[in-house]
Amino acid sequence: MKFGVFYEHQLPKPWTEDDEYRLLNEALDQVALADRLGFDHAWEVEHHFLDEYSHSSAPEVFLAAAAARTDRIRLGHGIRQVIPNYNHPARTAEGLATLDLISDGRVDFGIGEGATRLELHGFGIPAKQKRAMSLESAEQIANMMVLDPYPGYESPNFSMPCRNVLPKPRQKPHPPMWIACTNRETIKVAARNGLGALAFTFIDPDEAKAWADIYYDIIKSEECVPIGHTVNANLALVTGFSMHEDRATAIRNGQEGFEFFGYAMSSLVTRDQVPGRTDLWGDFQALRDPAVEQKRIAAAEAAGDTYSSCIGTPADARRYVRELADVGVDQLIFIQQCGRNRHADICSSLEMFGDQVLPEFRAEEAERQRAKDEELAPFVEAALARKQWMQPLADDEIPIVRASVSKPQAAGRLA
């Protein structure tokens, strides 16, 4: 099992002048701490115009800053908005490769499309076409990072002439590719396209097993035809995270923020929004019943050593991680910076997990990965053989780009 930390950069109202400054700098401190503790991944989203839920509109900037402050943790776009209206594919390819170079090959590339009208309509993206547009762009971004030069592309969604997209990434052929998933159908999309699945839905171990079985059955079938130049067969699952030696304290420190994460995510899709004026945190608090929290804590205490969650004690987390590892989840991603969860509590939780839980699973990881790679190798080879590759241009096929300035007139000739 691998472990990651995840950032939406949530900022509930009301705001003060320095809140965004503090939020980003505390998150960088947390990523640096996770790196020192041995966590495997730091994931950063890209969203636009989503007050309170996500103040993460420039993940490439945040991840570059994180690269400068870390040594080994992988830095993931979880996800990058790849539809051309958001980011031209060539600019995404350039940014990914640059980040991969300055981080010494530590980048993961998750793709996404957006789900809210605030984002989609803000950039003029037709909702019914967003999935096809994102997969098309992702495939061309991979081609841009590999081919020298990129032959060019023409479609109703975007076009680009032959150009050499530079720089090229340190990881060859390109950073591992993932896609955001929210249900069983998108898990199938991930597997069919040879992409790692970033499962941004909160599910129990039984459902996780069903997702893992669906995902790996397709990876091993003829349905898998990768859009990238590799197959990234991995299933990552997000979960709430807050740890304390006292379970009730862990719940008080982290459960409210985790619930706000889910509430805000749903509200932005299902409820009308007034840009700059909607108060998600206020609405959430108006619906929240303190008695429910007390009942949850009482039930958790009554559960004793059968309680399994990463919002709890180290023993609780250990049981929960084991359950997910046993059903085929490859990575657990912790949602810890959400709602009004405090920086000090987040750091304390990371340290506790890194000291008391992570080492047990780290000791098993190399052998687990070796056995998995060996099992999947023939299926990956077969999947790559099914791919229709964009063909590189021969030297005499590369078009000449004419100079933009006319050649000077011969001496002595009149204009």
Proportion of strand residues: 5-15%
Order of strands, main sheet, comes to: 1-2-3-4-7-8-9-12
Could you spell the SSE succession in H and E letters? Answer: EHEHEHEHHEEEHEHEEHHHEHEHH
Roughly how many Å is the radius of gyration?
23 Å
Number of strands: 12
How helical, in percent, are the residues?
40-55%
Shape descriptor: globular
The fourth-level CATH homologous superfamily is: Luciferase-like domain
Question: What is the CATH fold-level name?
Answer: TIM Barrel
DSSP helical segment count: 13
Q: How would a crystallographer describe the biggest sheet?
A: 8 strands, parallel, barrel
List the helices and strands and how they pair.
Layout: E1 2-7, H1 19-37, E2 41-44, H2 59-69, E3 74-81, H3 89-102, E4 107-112, H4 117-120, H5 130-146, E5 153-154, E6 159-160, E7 177-181, H6 184-192, E8 196-199, H7 205-219, E9 235-240, E10 242-243, H8 247-270, H9 280-287, H10 290-303, E11 311-312, H11 314-326, E12 331-337, H12 343-356, H13 358-386
Helix pairs in contact: 1-2, 1-12, 2-3, 3-5, 6-7, 8-10
